[in-house]
Specification:
The protein has 262 residues and is of the alpha/beta class. The strands form two sheets. A seven-stranded mixed beta sheet has the order 3-5-4-6-7-8-9. Strands 1-2 form a two-stranded antiparallel sheet. Helix 1 crosses helix 2, helix 3 runs antiparallel to helix 4 and helix 3 runs antiparallel to helix 7. The radius of gyration is 17 Å and the shape is globular.
Length: 262
Amino acid sequence: MPDITNDNVSLYVEVDGDGPPVTVFAHGLTNSRNELAPFTPALAGTKVRFDFRGHGRSSVPESGYRFADFARDLDAVATRYGATRAVGTSLGAGAITHLIAERPDRFERIVFLLPAALDVPLADHRDFDRTADLFETMDKDRAIEAIMSSAGRAATYERAPFLRAFDLMLWQDMNPVGVSRAIREVVRDVAIGDRELLRRVTAPTMVICREGDSVHPAELGSVLADLMPNAELIVLPGEEELIASIPMLVGRVKAFLEDGSA
């Protein structure tokens, strides 16, 4: 697919399917368009996945990695393909939030998967900074191995070995230079200036969260569901349950996005 240029940044795009509805998928920090690929085969219509600036196969500017910048990337791709629906996880959810705070009617349906940002800066970004340090001082493979060998991840992989393969899949297209630059800026930013702006967003919205996630707290999902008048909240007990529930979530997201598309 042809790249899209936004702010002199080339954004890599992949498109599956055809016809309405058109759904744009926005991935999380450090990941790529592949992160949300499990959702696309089952969905009707046109599915548009892209890499944010500094991620995957998109270009890597020296600076410009705040939520406003990522929101412009999202809007450029959505506008080019006429997307009326948006699915975003983590960073991608924050980009959607920034965009709809400015333009409440931008999308007809919205899905937030593990939202991470609102109007309060991240309290502790030391883990993110350590990740950026590794990518700035090691080659990609050694940096990824160091991250995956950390105490917290090692314990998780011991409980659920399949999560290691899942994480490796997410990082196969990772751009270490761009990711480190993105981390340095966006983790110190807020998605929007005032959460009350989201009360104007009347589009049906699905919010999916899990317990026990300090980066994507379930409490944030509850806040979004309370603010947005047509929001539905799904909360899962933990990471393993979230991964195991992907088939169920794909079905729920499919029904939600396709509702009213005829």
